[in-house]
Amino acid sequence: MEKETIEMIEQVTETSLGGVPGSIHGAVTISASAPLEGQQEPPVLTLTCTSPDLPAFGAQAFGGAKQVLPAGMERAGDLLADTSLVIPPEVVEGLMHKGTMCVLGGCSKTYKSWVALQLATSVASGTTFLGRKTVGGKVLYLNYELMRAFLSNRLNDIAAASNGTNLDNLTIKTMEGVSPQWEELKKDVFECARNGDYSLIIFDPVYKMMAGGSENSPKAVAGLCRMFREIASETGAAVLFVHHFPKGNPSRKRPLDRLAGSGMFARDPDTILTLSPHAEQGCFIFEAGLRNFPPLEPFVIQRKDPLMVERPDLSVVPVQEDAGDDWKSVLPKLLEEKPLTVKEWQGAARDAGCPRSTFFRVKKILVSGSLVQEDLRAKTWSRKVEEPAIPPVGIEQELCQ
Fold first, then answer.
1. What is the mean pLDDT of residues 43-49?
2. pTM
3. 158 with 166: CB under 8 angstroms?
4. How far is CA 293 from CA 210, 219, 226, 289, 350, in A?
């Protein structure tokens, strides 16, 4: 290296590291690119420091020296010039890419597991999912809830209702009743992934994976999401977990805030898919929060056993919780056929579309108004029937004359 270049390196080093204590643990690397023959420009110098003892610094340019960046940082120009960067392929058109993390959430009994299985079979066979194209590939479905016999029945029903469904690309791992250790689970998943290039890995449901931890604990949920990220990164597959909503009317909240437990469940995933009750019985509102795709307008889907299908003819109208006046007349009618326990009564109200919180609020009104009555011995409720008024003495004789 020429003397001029050596002097320039000394100048940059002295300026960049001036005032730094003499004992530094780490490495300082300086590289120089000499100009082409016949050119007079000074060499381009790059100084990189990997020492944790050094504060953040940036060397001033001396005769063409580049600004120094801490390890792990890069210039925007270098990022834009990197031709090796490629956006991963889509698994479901407009919804998820390979290598990303996703969540499917919904209220209780909104057929979340059915939808997850429908997604799994659609990707495995390369058929459409709710009107959107899928790129056929291998799918790994980790089942933590259903017994194998019931899971078999569901898959059989879905395959029979879906023309052209091929389940050869779908691998099932049933862990019903097992509370896995995350490190062991990662090893199992990686072992399965070695057998082929998976496009999608589904964990259903996520609360069964907490292994004694609380879904309200940011630390526990962060650890679980970190594991999902590692699996997505190592396997290159999209990772989707199934989660539930807390009690109450989800339409009052943004999709990002509907999932139960820690906010990490919704803030970490790249794709958030939610199912909320629609005003039309048996219909649901499908919404998506997307980090890597353009926004998707909510749309309505309907359960047509065993599949969900689109209902483009329906507007997005959520179930309204504040319909107390209507339920004051409906809830007593549910007791006309026979007395019911509170659990049976609330279940009948739920089937009629009455939210749980509304049921108990209206029940208090009915009790205070003496419109329903409780049998304390049988622990049942019935509609209160007004007894006919007894006329005063002497009136009967007058009426009969």
1. 52
2. 0.65
3. no
4. 30, 29, 22, 9, 36
